[in-house]
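Ticket #4471: structure export looks truncated?
Reporter: QA, pipeline team
Priority: medium

Steps to reproduce: submit the single chain below to the structure queue and open the exported record.
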Amino acid sequence: MIFFIDGTIGMGNSGVEHAEFYRAKVLEQVGMPYRYLFYRLNRDLHKPMDRWGLKNDQVINMWEYFTLGENYLHHGVQKFFPASTKLVIDSTNTHRKRDTYTDSGMHVVDHLVKHKNKHQQSNVLLVSTNHVEIYDRNTGKLKVKFTFYDDQHRKEIIRNVHLYDQAAGAHLFFPNGMQLMRYFFERVNAAFQEKNVYLIDRSIDAEVALFNRRLPNAKLVDVIHADQLSNRRDPQHPLFNNYNEYLLTHLASVDRVVVATELQRQDMLIDFPGHEQQFVTIPVGGVDDHPKIVKKATLGRPVKFITASRLAAEKHIDLIVKALAKLHDDDGVELQFDIYGAGGEDSRIKQTISEAQAGAYISLKGHSANLTQEYPQYDAFISGSYSEGFGLTYIEALNAGLPVVTYNARFGAQELIHEGQNGFLADFKRDDADYSVQQLYLALKRLLAADYGVLQANTQKSIQRYHDHVIAADWSELINAL
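Actual output as written to the record:
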């Protein structure tokens, strides 16, 4: 069995989760079984599972397993319930208890406390969960109890975990969440008595749990989804990305490390010579083996641009807005720019649009569950990210016949986008936003000056290596080699 290890999923996800969804698709193509292993307590897990097409028996959540029992590991949730939430509020209008009745059959009781903020100076008191009880709605029995501890450095961590009425009626105790997670992996591994492969997508906790005591007959594969360094250009600070530091200082504990581009693999080997066999290149996304033929060969009027990502600071969508506003105002280009996605930078992007007086032609569109149907309505794709481990949206856009304008970012942009052939690359400076805006503006001008028909003809040709059957064969070769 192949297991994808991640915290959880939500209604809106990052590229990591979409890479998992794509991997599931190609593993099915070659007949390889898999399961998602989620270790976070998600009180509303099955709604995003339905949204993203994850079947009931394809997902194993740690807390559902401890609540629902051994049969859950192989068959998933057997009985669904109406979901609801009840709050107990005291005379000071403070929330004191929250009862969450999940559709999967858990009754989660959060006991809430009011307290000072340890992490910043503030006169405002916080209300958060102190301890949790989880009951099985099928039987009414208490199955799990644990406390949260607000650590000065690590913030909220789980400790003093009790599991009740487990296999053979056992009552188990774990002093911390790490030991609980290790026990969870041991139970999963024992339940699937075969050659198990664990793909760790984004979890230092899972790495610590699995590296320090290896599971019998199991192989470990870490998947890196971003640049492993904070900035290779800075020779004084070539620091590891904090998500990858534990892995890269414990390489002997993992069987393979998968990166999405050959450029990143070669960059890894600069710091880890002699590990050629351990580092493997497998793209985290791809396109159908028989893509639709794109016939449009001229720029529209207005020129329609699209971007799609989390609305996060590192995506620099505000810089795209400024570059397009400059193209509109200084060059008189009639254009439309639609922004798909959601996230914490929503208000900042709206403010940038307002300051640029660009509301008439720049819009935030929110989430789209099916971007492949949106892309053909546009002329070009734009990215403002300074770092992209791969760039799933690049592949999707190119497959729809859209040239890509992006920063010359490690590693996806550099491997997927070829200047003047299927898109344009802009230089950037991390500490000079005005320079980055100007360079993106110049790249957009190169797009408008180019032969659009030639650019578009090259888009689908440039991604033949990323067809589903090719990537499925990559995964099959890796798993069989283990």
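Status: closed, not a bug. The export was complete when the record was re-opened. Leaving a note from the reviewer for reference: The longest strand covers residues 126-136.
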